[in-house]
Design brief:
FGGY_C; alpha+beta; Nucleotidyltransferase, domain 5; 19 helices; 512 residues; FGGY_N; 17 strands; seven-stranded mixed sheet; globular; single chain; six-stranded mixed sheet; rhamnose metabolism
Length: 512
């Protein structure tokens, strides 16, 4: 009988991090959370930063907890790191941090972003070169602002390591840029697997800061002796493996996708990341207008996606209500109360006037869809990016459009979920138009997949069944790529097929 494989997944998010011990035995993956810790950006002098040393301390604590959780005599085969996208650490040749690590929500990127968007010819060239639209959090804008405001940084820094790259360096001692995280930067060549020189030149990023990205499965080396001391024999042969560094890519890898490519993937959390897998990028004027980002898998294929603002809307709105839920029971009660509020998705044709009621069935549906959209939030509004008050930002948009604000928190929850469902559906419709595909179902993971109201709103708006999985997406994808590198599993398709049998899912059929 084959021995079990024990692997550690370091999964760092913008609000929390965790270390998970994964066990692969008899073609089944089991998870054990051994350490969880909070994460938050820190503000100083009008700018936002990450506490990188604090995160590193938590990672080390988590790895020690993983070792303590191993069966007697077992060893940790490997470790992999995934994080949120775009943020980075600037170091010298020795790996010493030479500049504070800004958080992606810092407003410093607005000026370079607006400059690019207002220079149409340049914007078209950058999109054609990188396949990534102009969004405020892009690494390209962050780096451009750093170089412009602190020119001496080009003398101090010799390497730019994105967050999973940097933690891989701390673990292994090897500096390497990973392919999936590199594709979030607006600096990678969309038609190849190396950096785009036109993009680097435009944003004035020194090419020497970056090396050709490695693909997932690349073994960076053994865990450094600073962690694997003689007192920890379980760590003596632990390999540090480059998994897809972007947590969304890992989450997509975990989903039991059908081989026919007819699945839409939805990773729902602070952001709603809607996309699909493809062998070609989606480029051109229509893709740019739709803000399609051609992210890459760790293996090199494409993962066209659109970033919808997500539950950030709800998280921000809750701050303005003393009645916000504090535990699972209160959350369930809030969602139940919101579900009782009539949805504009269930609009009665008679309520829209005689013109709708007297029209043909197909035209009534089209008119209802437009009316629903006109009474929902425009989730693409940049005012929702990081407002002082999310509730005030929502109320302001509604007022501009002549719409009434909800009366209570349950009303806001209903409005937000219905609006996000419509936002998801709009993206899917765009993907079908640009790709020529017809999608058959939506695979949904992340915190939002537990929100029954959001799942149903997405099914209703899109007309597609939503398969909501009880799945630790980013962690499972992280571990899957480690197991493939260790040759415990043949490839991703084999892992998906094996793991699908153990997944619990809830299917939401369209009701409208």
């Amino acid at each position: 009988m084959a021995k079990p494989f024990y692997c550690a997944a370091i999964d760092l998010g913008a609000t929390s991090g965790r270390v998970i011990l994964g066990t692969w035995a008899k073609n089944r993956l089991t998870l054990r959370e051994v350490h969880r810790f909070p994460n938050a950006l820190r503000s100083a002098g009008g700018h936002d930063y990450w506490d990188i040393p604090g995160l590193w301390q938590e990672v080390q604590t988590g790895l020690r907890a993983a070792v303590a959780a191993l069966p007697k005599g077992a060893t940790l085969a490997s470790v992999g790191v995934d994080t949120w996208g775009v943020d980075y650490v600037l170091t010298n040749d020795a790996g010493r941090i030479v500049f504070p690590t800004h958080a992606y929500r810092d407003a410093r990127t607005q000026a370079p972003m607006e400059h690019l968007k207002n220079t149409r010819a340049a914007y078209d060239r950058i999109y054609a070169a990188t396949g990534i639209p102009a969004v405020f959090y892009n690494s390209s804008f962050q780096l451009a602002e750093t170089v412009a405001s602190c020119p001496a940084i080009t003398d101090l820094a010799t390497r730019c390591l994105f967050l999973p790259d940097y933690f891989n360096f701390l673990l292994s001692g090897q500096m390497a840029n990973g392919l999936s995280i590199a594709s979030t930067t607006q600096l990678l060549d969309v038609n190849g697997d190396d950096w785009s020189r036109p993009a680097l030149d435009y944003f004035r990023v020194p090419p020497v800061w970056l090396t050709k990205p490695v693909r997932s499965g690349h073994k960076l080396g053994r865990l450094r002796t600073v962690l694997s001391s003689a007192k920890d024999p379980a760590l003596q042969d632990t390999q540090v493996i480059a998994v897809p560094g972007h947590d969304t890519t890992c989450a997509y890898d975990a989903m039991p996708a059908a081989a026919d490519g007819a699945d839409i993937f939805l990773s729902s959390g602070t952001w709603s990341l809607v996309g699909f897998e493809s062998n070609q990028p989606l480029l051109g004027a229509e893709a740019l207008a739709a803000r399609v980002a051609n992210d890459r898998t760790g293996r090199g294929e494409y993962r066209p996606l659109v970033n919808v603002i997500g539950l950030w809307l709800l998280e921000g709105t809750l701050k303005d209500f003393a009645s916000r839920p504090k535990n699972d029971r209160e959350w369930a009660a809030l969602i139940k109360a919101a579900a009782k509020i009539p949805s504009v998705a269930a609009l009665d044709p008679a309520s829209a006037g005689d013109n709708v009621a007297g029209a043909t069935l197909s035209s009534r549906r089209g008119t209802q869809a437009q009316l629903r959209k006109d009474t929902l939030l425009d989730v693409t509004d940049p005012a929702f990016a990081n407002p002082p008050s999310m509730k005030a930002a929502i109320d302001a948009q509604l007022k501009r459009r002549g719409l009434k604000a909800p009366r209570d928190l349950a009303g806001y929850v209903r409005l937000i979920c219905d609006s996000l469902g419509r936002g998801h559906a709009d993206v899917i419709k765009t993907f079908e138009k640009l790709s020529g595909r017809t999608f058959k179902r939506i695979l949904m993971v992340g915190g939002g997949s537990k929100n029954t109201l959001l799942c149903q709103a997405t099914a209703d708006a899109s007309g597609l069944p939503v398969h909501s999985f009880a799945l630790e997406g980013s962690v499972v994808g992280n571990l899957a790529n480690q197991l493939i590198a260790l040759k415990a599993v043949k490839n991703l398709a084999a892992f998906r097929a094996l793991h699908a049998a153990d997944l619990k899912q809830t299917i939401y059929q369209p009701k409208v």
